[in-house]
UniProtKB/TrEMBL annotation:
InterPro entries noted in UniProt: ETF_a/b_N, ETF_b, ETF_beta_N, Rossmann-like_a/b/a_fold
UniProt source species: Pedobacter ureilyticus
PANTHER family in the record: ELECTRON TRANSFER FLAVOPROTEIN BETA-SUBUNIT, ELECTRON TRANSFER FLAVOPROTEIN SUBUNIT BETA
Lineage: Bacteria, Pseudomonadati, Bacteroidota, Sphingobacteriia, Sphingobacteriales
One Pfam family per UniProt: ETF
Listed CDD domains: ETF_beta
Domain Electron transfer flavoprotein alpha/beta-subunit N-terminal: 23-208
Signal peptide extent: none
Keywords (A to Z) from UniProt: Electron transport, Transport
UniProt keyword Iron present: no
UniProt record similarity statement: Belongs to the ETF beta-subunit/FixA family.
SMART domains linked: ETF (SM00893)
Record keyword Cytoplasm present: no
Protein name: Electron transfer flavoprotein subunit beta
Gene3D superfamilies: HUPs (3.40.50.620)
Length: 245
């Protein structure tokens, strides 16, 4: 069994976000990057499925050389080898196309990724890869079991859960609950230095979309605390200030 896990290089959640070039470019100065947390969940489940000699786990990232420390962390967590597609990930279609092109020439049984990246929150790449490869794509899964030929997958839906069975090759995007993110130990960190990391050149992709401008959310407004026994004051403020009733 061969598993491909797609990982994103994203700013740490504590990063202060700013933009340059009249708000058209993300300011990378001083930013610490990490493996996208949802992708770490996908990677952890892949490692569990491959344990005991049942398979191998390859991670793939679309990015320039600056993403290699993040890729090495994925190797330290437990991936067997890694691929870096050498290209700046300008949009979801570009990323999905690069991953699909690599997967077409390599026989993977399962492709896993996170439900979304925490920087753009687009939830687009997984479905695009599935479409480009013409394989089943199951989004935002919470549980994945695999017997070597058939996968049983659980998804949360409104008011309950959905259980899906899929045979053959498939792609799934993982959410919380699919696995617990693994912390690399010293042995993993040391072995990551020598694990294979192959660099392949990006293929040409038509530009179908472009970010024209970024905007940060408006600052939070002030908060007024109303004592529980002063319900009439609260109602008055909802009428006169908030104007919601």
């Amino acid at each position: 069994m061969k598993i491909l896990v797609c990982i994103s290089n994203v700013p740490d959640t504590t990063t202060k976000i700013t933009f340059t070039g009249d708000n058209t470019e993300f300011n990378t100065a001083g930013v610490q990057y990490i493996v996208n947390p949802y992708d770490e969940i996908a990677l952890s489940r892949a490692i569990e499925l491959a344990e005991g000699g049942k398979g191998t786990v390859t991670v793939i990232n679309v990015g320039e050389a600056t993403t290699e420390p993040t890729i090495r962390k994925a190797l330290a967590i437990g991936a067997d080898d890694a691929i870096r597609v050498n290209g700046a990930p300008r949009d979801a279609y570009f990323v999905a196309t690069q991953i699909a092109e690599y997967a077409k020439s390599n026989d993977f049984d399962i492709i896993l990724c996170g439900r979304e990246s925490i920087d753009y929150n687009g939830s687009q790449v997984a479905a695009m890869i599935g479409e480009l490869l013409d394989i089943p794509s199951i989004s935002i899964i919470k549980k994945l079991d695999y017997d070597g030929s058939t996968a049983t997958i659980e998804r949360e839906i409104e008011g309950g859960k959905e259980v899906v069975s899929v045979s053959g090759k498939f792609l799934a995007s993982c959410a919380e609950g699919t696995a617990e993110a693994k912390i690399p130990n010293m042995r993993g960190i040391m072995s990551a230095r020598t694990k294979p990391l192959q660099v392949v050149e990006a293929v040409a992709v038509e530009e179908v979309g472009k970010i024209s401008k970024f905007e940060t959310p408006a600052p939070r407004g002030s908060v007024k605390l109303i004592p529980a026994e002063s319900a009439e004051d609260l109602i008055g403020l909802l009428h006169s200030e908030a104007k919601v009733i």
